[in-house]
Amino acid sequence: MLIMYRQDTMKQFLKIGKPGVLIGCIFAASTFCFTAAIQNTSISNTLVIISTSPMFAALFSWIFLKEKIKLVTWIAMVIIIGAIAIIMSSSAAEGSLFGDLCAFGSSIFMAISFTVTRRYKAINMVPAMALSGVVATLVSIPLIISTGSSFLISTNAIPYLVVGAIFISIAFALITLGPRYMPAPEVGLIMPLETVLGSYLGWIFLSEEPNNLTIIGGIIVIATLIIHAWLSLKTDE
Q1: pLDDT, tens digit, 9 for 90 and up, residues 4-21
Q2: Considering its fold, how many domains does the chain have in total?
Q3: Residues 84, 104: contact at Cβ < 8 Å?
Q4: Host domain of residue 41
Q5: Residue 7 gets which letter from DSSP?
Q6: How far is 89 from 100, CA to CA, in rounded Å?
C-alpha cells in the first residue's frame, strides 16, 4: 500500500468504510479457519475444499445480490457438494473431520468476502486485506494469553513464517491483478492448479499422501471447476 499510494495510503484505508472493515473481519475469520484446517487435516483436503469458494460465492451473489445463476453453475455446485461429501466421509473415518469442517468454513468465509467485495466493487478493498491481518492478530493475542503455551511456536519457525508471508502477499497481489488483464473464466481455468500443485508439494515434502477418496473427490472438484470455467468462457465469447 505504501509503495502504491505513498502519502495517500491513509486515505485509501479511510475510504473502505464499514464494508471494508466487514471484509477485513470476514477474511480474518477465513484465515483462522484455514490455519486450523492445515493443522487438523491434510493439505490436499484443505486445498480441495477451499477451491470450492467461487461456487459458494455465486450462490451468495444469487441470494443477496439477486444475480442470476446459470444452469451449468447450479449443476457444478451440486457435483462439488457431492465431491466434498466424499472427501469428508474419508476424514470422518481418519479422525480429521474437524480439519475438513474448518476448511469448509474458510471456503464459506472467503465466498462471503467475495460477495461483499462485489457489492461494493467501486471501493478499493486491498486495504481490507491488510486490516484482516490486524484483526487476526488482535484476536490471537488473548487466545495465546488465556491458553498459555499451547498456541505458541518455536523461534525456529519464524523464518518460515516470514517467507510464507512474503509468498502469500505476492499471491494476493497477482490474483488481484490477474482479472484486470484476462477474463474471469480464464482465471478460473488456472486457479485449480493451486490445488494440484499444493497437494503435490505436500506429498513430496511432508509425505502427506492423499487417500483414495480424497483423490477421487479432488479429481471431481478440479474437473468440475475447469469444465465450468471453460463453458463460461465459451459463453462469453
Answers
A1: 888 888 998 898 889 889
A2: 1
A3: yes
A4: 17-141+157-236
A5: G
A6: 10
